[in-house]
């Protein structure tokens, strides 16, 4: 018979690591399963200046490393694995990967979200050949070259500013005439001489056979198309929740974010969700970490009541 954990956390980003810390501190026998990189999306963020206390060159990677160490020190066990099937309706939750079956009294889903594709022609074909979704990973390849950033939210503007450390020019292409990003980020971008803006425009296609040579832009007001010669294109048009595995089992909104109450309870008892995978209004590291803490505390109360 497989080991029965008090709590299994799926996902090792800020929500999962924070849940692990709180669960282990309350002496729950806790396993955290992560299929890729601990830290999740924040590992691709160079500057992290809005997580309280993250000063003096705190990067996403350094913060997640410290979060992981803290959880480990309190006794969280870690497994590098990918859950592919589950049975979570009963009192014992069963999670299956290709090689293992895991069992737990409670589970916390902290699977996060993935970058969304913009949907223009050749986007998939030239992904990794000039088109990127991670500035921290790829900015270096574009040193002294011209790059474009697609999107007008916090991600697009944060990463556009970061890219100016490498590229000779950064052109932000936004589908409206006003940015969605926080005002302080907007100010920094508008004051950065390396950043230019193309407003009211969308990318309809990428040009290039083996490698990106340029973008075809469509002006939404005039309907005119133009070519923009760039060596790189970074797409930041939002995220999609990683919730496929739970479809048909958990209640979700129309964009597949898992619906929870304020205690992170889903519609199935003993199953909790935390962080970017759940339906909420502010997706930040600080709210993910808070969700994780609440989910673990609610999971502990659930076990006590049982
Ligand atoms: P977001 O806030 O949803 O912004 C997505 C941007 O992409 C919007 O400007 C949107 O335009 C545009 N867009 C969406 N679909 C598009 C398409 N098909 N073609 C062209 N443009 C498209 O996403 P995000 O910037 O990734 O941020 C996600 C969450 O993480 C937010 O809650 C954000 O605050 C948070 N975040 C925070 C920070 C930070 O605080 N430093 C950094 C990164 C992310 P419209 O504006 O017209 O809708």
| CATH class designation of the largest domain | Alpha Beta
Mean pLDDT: 95
Instruction: Provide the gyration radius in Å.
Output: 21 Å
Measured between the Cα atoms of the first and last residue, the distance is: 22 Å
- Element-level helix/strand string: EHEHEEEEEEHEHEHEEEEEEEH
Shape label = elongated
Per DSSP, what share of the residues sits in E-state strands of 2 or more residues? 25-35%
Please, what is the CATH homologous superfamily of the largest domain? FAD/NAD(P)-binding domain
Named CATH topology of the largest domain: FAD/NAD(P)-binding domain
Number of strands: 17
Count of alpha and pi helical runs: 6
Number of domains: 2
List the helices and strands and how they pair.
Elements (H helix, E strand, L loop, with lengths): L3 E7 L3 H12 L4 E5 L25 H14 L3 E4 L2 E5 L5 E5 L3 E9 L3 E3 L15 E2 L2 H4 L7 E5 L3 H10 L5 E5 L9 H8 L4 E4 L2 E7 L6 E6 L5 E5 L2 E4 L3 E3 L29 E3 L11 H21 L1
Parallel strand pairs: 1-2, 1-6, 2-3, 6-17, 8-15, 9-10, 9-15, 10-11
Antiparallel strand pairs: 4-5, 5-6, 7-16, 12-13, 13-14
Helix pairs in contact: 1-2, 1-6, 4-5
NADP nicotinamide-adenine-dinucleotide phosphate (NAP) binds next to helix 4.
Protein name: Thioredoxin reductase
GO molecular function, one term: thioredoxin-disulfide reductase (NADPH) activity
Family: Belongs to the class-II pyridine nucleotide-disulfide oxidoreductase family.
